[in-house]
Amino acid sequence: MKKVVFLLILSISISLLFVGVVFAKNDFSLINVAGIVNTKDIGGQGLYVFSMWDGSRNSFVKIDGSFVSVVLNGRAQKLSVKDSKKATRALAIVLPQSPDNIVFDAESTAMAVLLSDPSLFRNSTDMTKFYNMAISKKSFQGLTVFLKKNLPLKSIEEIMRDDEYLALVRACNKEIFNEDAAAVKKSLYQAREQLEKLLQ
Known about the structure:
Number of strands: 6
Distance between the termini: 9 Å
Helix content: 40-55%
Radius of gyration: 19 Å
Strand order of the largest sheet: 3-1-6
Largest sheet: 3 strands, mixed
Structural class: alpha+beta
């Protein structure tokens, strides 16, 4: 057990060191971003755009759906729309190269749900290629239709408990990323078993 704790602490320390190096190389800075929340797709009252880099926390969505916020420069990242109860109502991926045309809607939320680490995309060209590929897939289209139907009525936290949503996400992962959820889960268990044997 002590070995496991030590390895976890070591892993976290290395990760923090790596983050520090990345920030140093990228000349850590913040930039303003702006866009629109499609209120036909997105429900909720008292909507605001949440960014961990926006110290003012006042990125409220105006009546026309427009907003302004702040993000970290140099890498793609996710933003969320939250309501007055702090429930998440939509997601979008922000690229520093396109800071003024962010759109929150069912499609942007589907894309952000599938991309757990948007920072893998270094530029808008790569992101555009992936986007064009994803929207051509039936599974992604199905997920978008489902979110368009449900986002006006429910938060993402509520939607994530829906079996139909979970099935659609699994279908997207299989079709777009060639990931079989059962196979991934099995490989994780096998890796954990191997680690435990090594530490015994």
